[in-house]
C-alpha cells in the first residue's frame, strides 16, 4: 500500500508561535507609545461591544487605546519597581484586573475624566445581564412584526398565533423581571422589540502622568473639586472687596 502524502511528521519545535509573536508585538507597541503620550488612563468596561470600541477609536484619533490580556499589558509597563519602564508604572500595572484597557493620550486630564464620566451608549442586553426593568407584553396583536417571524417567536417562548396574517399574543406575557438575569431567549425577544436595556460605558480607575507618577481617579477628582472651591472662594472675596469699595 503506497504511503499517504498527508502522513507527514511535523516537529513541534518548528511550529510558528503566533501567540508569542502577537504578545511581543503588543508589548512593543505599548512601550513605543510611552514616548509619544503624557498620560496613561486605566479604565474598566461595562457591556463590552466591539462596534462601540471602533467608534471610540475614531473619536479619539489623537490618542491610543490598548485592549489585550492584562498580564501582557502589565509586562509592557513593568510589574515591579525594578523592571518598570517609567517611575511608578508598576503601580498602574498592578491595577490591571478584570475587563479593562489602557488609554494613552496628550489631552488634558480634567477633560478626559469629564468625558468618561458622561459617556454612555445604549446597547442591547445579552444573556446573563441583570434586567433593569419589568417588560410585559399585553394580550393582542403584535403589528410591528412580519407574519413570517411567528414560528421564531413561538420558539422563543411567546404564546402567539396568526390571526388573518397578524401575529397575536393569545395572553399577556412577561418578557423579563427587574433584578433577574436574562436568558438567551429573553435577550433575543428584547432585541426584536428594540429595547436597548444595557449601557456601554467606561470608568476611569486610575492614571499615570509622565514626570508626576501614579494617581487614583478619586484623588484627581477631589483635587479638582478643591481647586474649584478655592476659585469660588477667591471670587467671593473679590466680590466682597468690590462691594466695600463701592460703599466707601
Automatic annotation (TrEMBL):
<dbReference type="InterPro" id="IPR001790">
    <property type="entry name" value="Ribosomal_uL10"/>
</dbReference>
<dbReference type="InterPro" id="IPR040637">
    <property type="entry name" value="Ribosomal_uL10-like_insert"/>
</dbReference>
<dbReference type="Pfam" id="PF00466">
    <property type="entry name" value="Ribosomal_L10"/>
</dbReference>
<dbReference type="GO" id="GO:0005730">
    <property type="term" value="C:nucleolus"/>
</dbReference>
<dbReference type="InterPro" id="IPR043164">
    <property type="entry name" value="Ribosomal_uL10-like_insert_sf"/>
</dbReference>
<dbReference type="GO" id="GO:0006364">
    <property type="term" value="P:rRNA processing"/>
</dbReference>
<feature type="compositionally biased region" description="Basic and acidic residues">
    <location>
        <begin position="220"/>
        <end position="231"/>
    </location>
</feature>
<keyword id="KW-0539">Nucleus</keyword>
<keyword id="KW-0963">Cytoplasm</keyword>
<feature type="compositionally biased region" description="Acidic residues">
    <location>
        <begin position="232"/>
        <end position="248"/>
    </location>
</feature>
<dbReference type="InterPro" id="IPR043141">
    <property type="entry name" value="Ribosomal_uL10-like_sf"/>
</dbReference>
<dbReference type="GO" id="GO:0005737">
    <property type="term" value="C:cytoplasm"/>
</dbReference>
<dbReference type="Pfam" id="PF17777">
    <property type="entry name" value="RL10P_insert"/>
</dbReference>
<feature type="domain" description="Large ribosomal subunit protein uL10-like insertion">
    <location>
        <begin position="125"/>
        <end position="194"/>
    </location>
</feature>
<comment type="function">
    <text>Component of the ribosome assembly machinery. Nuclear paralog of the ribosomal protein P0, it binds pre-60S subunits at an early stage of assembly in the nucleolus, and is replaced by P0 in cytoplasmic pre-60S subunits and mature 80S ribosomes.</text>
</comment>
<dbReference type="InterPro" id="IPR051742">
    <property type="entry name" value="Ribosome_Assembly_uL10"/>
</dbReference>
<protein>
    <recommendedName>
        <fullName>Ribosome assembly factor mrt4</fullName>
    </recommendedName>
</protein>
<comment type="similarity">
    <text>Belongs to the universal ribosomal protein uL10 family.</text>
</comment>
<dbReference type="InterPro" id="IPR033867">
    <property type="entry name" value="Mrt4"/>
</dbReference>
<feature type="region of interest" description="Disordered">
    <location>
        <begin position="220"/>
        <end position="248"/>
    </location>
</feature>
<keyword id="KW-0690">Ribosome biogenesis</keyword>
<dbReference type="GO" id="GO:0030687">
    <property type="term" value="C:preribosome, large subunit precursor"/>
</dbReference>
<dbReference type="GO" id="GO:0003723">
    <property type="term" value="F:RNA binding"/>
</dbReference>
<dbReference type="GO" id="GO:0000027">
    <property type="term" value="P:ribosomal large subunit assembly"/>
</dbReference>
<dbReference type="GO" id="GO:0000956">
    <property type="term" value="P:nuclear-transcribed mRNA catabolic process"/>
</dbReference>
<comment type="subunit">
    <text>Associates with the pre-60S ribosomal particle.</text>
</comment>
